[in-house]
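#struct-help
A.M.: can someone run this one for me? Single chain, 239 residues.
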Amino acid sequence: SFNSLNHDMTLAEFKFIWYMEYSHRMWGRVVGLAYILPAAYFWHRGWLNRPLKGCVLALCGLVCFQGLLGWYMVKSGLEEKPDSYDIPRVSQYRLAAHLGSALVLYSASLWTGLSLLLPRHKLPETHQLLRLRQYAHGTTALIFLTALSGAFVAGLDAGLVYNSFPKMGERWIPDDLLAFSPVLRNIFENPTTVQFDHRILGIASITAVTALYFFSRKIPLPRRTRMAVTSLLAVACMQ
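D.P.: on it. Structure tokens below:
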């Protein structure tokens, strides 16, 4: 990496990158201990019921799996590739897996914690409420997919290919969108296609969140739910 990419790096610049990587690893280990040690204590004291024990085991397993994925991802950036003339970088597939598992871990932790702290509202199962719930789940999946596509953008440095919006260069659809063969390979390995997909998914996500907000306004919902939907729209716009 030093010979092919950063041969002019100073010692101070190297230390800055090293300490960022080191801090990330140490923070990850602190997060693991923050999960496992209290979980073991609560388990030993008998404060966890049977369903919660399953949740705790799953979350602790996800923490360990996340650390393993991080090691596996970094390893891909250190491997020698004699047939490649590209700059050293981690695999975009492993980066997406690392980010995806982190999102799952965070979401599962938040869901478990809020389920314990806040009582669930008993709402009448109307047709509109069922549609809202289904639409919310679909929007969640779309946002998750958009975030994963961002990992592919980062892994391939695809953000450097085009820096104009809404067009990519002078065109709405770039010429090299399907330059790789077979066609499916473009979605994961062609930087132009990866950036194009991320743009489309981002626009689709903000559209879906906005539609979810306006649809929720037509349904009588508890104050906490309204605050959640409004906050979602605000954060989506900020993003």
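A.M.: thanks! The chain has seven helices and no strands.
D.P.: also worth noting: The mean pLDDT is 90.
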